[in-house]
Amino acid sequence: MPCKLSVDPANFACPYSATAGDTITLKIRDETGAVKFESASYNGANVPIDANGQITITVAAGHNKLFVIYRFSDPVNGSGTLLEVCDQELASISVNRPAVAYMICA
Fold first, then answer.
1. pLDDT tens series, the chain, 106 aa
2. DSSP 9
3. Cβ count within 10 A of residue 64
4. Which is deepest, 59, 61, 65, 88, by most CB within 10 Å?
5. Which positions ≥6 away from 36 have C-beta within 8 Å?
6. Could you tell me the residue ranges of all domains in the chain?
7. Contacts 24+ apart (CB under 8 A), 90-98
8. Tens digits of residue pLDDT in 57-75
9. DSSP-based helix, strand, coil % in the chain, nearest 5
């Protein structure tokens, strides 16, 4: 599956971009302990977590935040990596930041 998100960490206003209408599925790669999505919302709506532990959004026009809360099996050193299902690395996940907002622009 081809990647749909473009990543530009130097762009603080909009580090993630895609085309409006693109469907993007995100997953987690565990690094230390297990990391799971606890909840997520995008563009004001709850995002369900599927049976595989992944979330899928349809990119909305404009600048919209994806809010994610992570759950860690290791409450001290838990870590992982947020990936698009094409295996593109998007962000490091750490027990030190269990709630994160990602700005996605289209």
1. 689 999 998 898 999 999 999 999 999 999 999 999 999 999 999 999 999 999 999 999 999 999 999 999 999 999 999 999 999 999 999 999 999 999 999 9
2. T
3. 17
4. 59
5. 28, 49, 53, 70, 71
6. 6-105
7. 90/5, 90/7, 90/16, 90/26, 93/28, 93/31, 93/35, 98/38, 98/69, 98/70, 98/71, 98/72
8. 999 999 999 999 999 999 9
9. 0, 55, 45
Residue 100's nearest CA partner among 42, 61, 23 is 42
CB 40 within 8 A of CB 67: yes
Cβ contacts of 96 within 8 Å, gap of 6 or more: none
Cα dihedral: 45, 82, 77, 46 (round 10): 10
Taking the C-alpha atoms of residue 78 and residue 36, their distance in angstroms, rounded to an integer, is 11
Residues of 44-62 as b/e, b for ≥16 C-beta within 10 angstroms? eeebeeeeeeebebebbee
